[in-house]
């Protein structure tokens, strides 16, 4: 069964970065997977009397915003279709119109029917972060973030952040297609970060991967004063990894997502492609 990779194309207020086009196609080609481009247009519906005629330009402002959203979606869809065709990657095109407040939940629901969601990351807006957090914690599927500051390069080396936790184990399982295609897998353990993050647990994972036919080695880092999210990325880049795999930590409080320290550190300053799984 071929993998299906969902690419949400956000259009409002900031569109998905153009860099996601080449990145998503490169990942799909690497995995031998199909792409699903999912353009999300905004639908701003207000009752005719909502403003009581006080703001006569509001209907035009809404129409302009919706038109801009559709145009951005069409442009991204066309660019992704052209790149996929050139690379020989199968593409399924989808388009949906959602109320702005329903975008995050709508994208998360759609991602449940995919094997992996690929999100172009460079969005500093509240809306963009809501979509990202919704995918991590509500979709039930892994999310591959492609930062606009770093193009997708060779995926021959994959770094796996390992602390022996449930979230790390889930991410490891979800990253299996990448691990099976990798030339080298490096297990990165920050030994003095958590009780479960020890040389022994890291070595056990290396042995487990070897038994499954995946060659891996252990890299032990010391936390020191550097934030864990930064340290993991620094180590991954120093090792030559093109992808960092890690568990997504956090919880919901008062209907808002609260990210764990390492997860927030990575999301706030992403330096290479990162696969997050909760």
From TrEMBL:
<protein>
    <submittedName>
        <fullName>Universal stress protein family protein</fullName>
    </submittedName>
</protein>
<dbReference type="InterPro" id="IPR006015">
    <property type="entry name" value="Universal_stress_UspA"/>
</dbReference>
């Amino acid at each position: 069964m071929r993998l299906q990779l969902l690419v949400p194309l956000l259009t409002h207020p900031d569109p998905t970065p153009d860099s996601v086009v080449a990145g998503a196609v490169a990942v799909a080609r690497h995995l031998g997977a199909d792409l699903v481009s999912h353009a999300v247009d905004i639908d701003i519906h207000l009752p005719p009397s909502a403003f009581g005629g006080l703001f006569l330009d509001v209907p035009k402002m809404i129409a302009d915003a919706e038109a801009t959203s559709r145009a951005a979606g069409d442009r991204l869809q066309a660019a992704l279709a052209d790149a996929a065709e050139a690379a020989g990657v199968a593409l399924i095109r989808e388009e949906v119109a959602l109320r702005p407040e329903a975008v995050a939940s709508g994208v998360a629901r759609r991602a449940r029917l995919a094997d992996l969601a690929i999100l172009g990351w460079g969005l500093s807006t509240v809306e963009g972060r809501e979509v990202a957090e919704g995918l991590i914690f509500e979709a039930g599927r892994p999310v591959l973030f492609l930062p606009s500051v770093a193009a997708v390069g060779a995926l021959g080396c994959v770094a796996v952040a390992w602390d022996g936790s449930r979230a790390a184990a889930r991410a490891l399982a979800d990253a299996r297609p990448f691990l099976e295609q990798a030339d080298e897998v490096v297990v990165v353990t920050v030994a003095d970060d958590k009780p479960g993050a020890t040389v022994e647990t890291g070595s056990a994972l290396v042995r487990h991967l070897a038994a499954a036919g995946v060659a891996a080695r252990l890299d032990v880092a010391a936390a020191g004063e550097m934030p864990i999210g930064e340290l993991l990325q620094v180590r991954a880049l120093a090792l030559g990894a093109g992808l960092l795999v890690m568990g997504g930590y956090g919880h919901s409080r008062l209907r808002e997502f609260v990210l764990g320290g390492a997860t927030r550190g990575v999301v706030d300053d992403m330096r290479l492609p990162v696969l997050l799984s909760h």
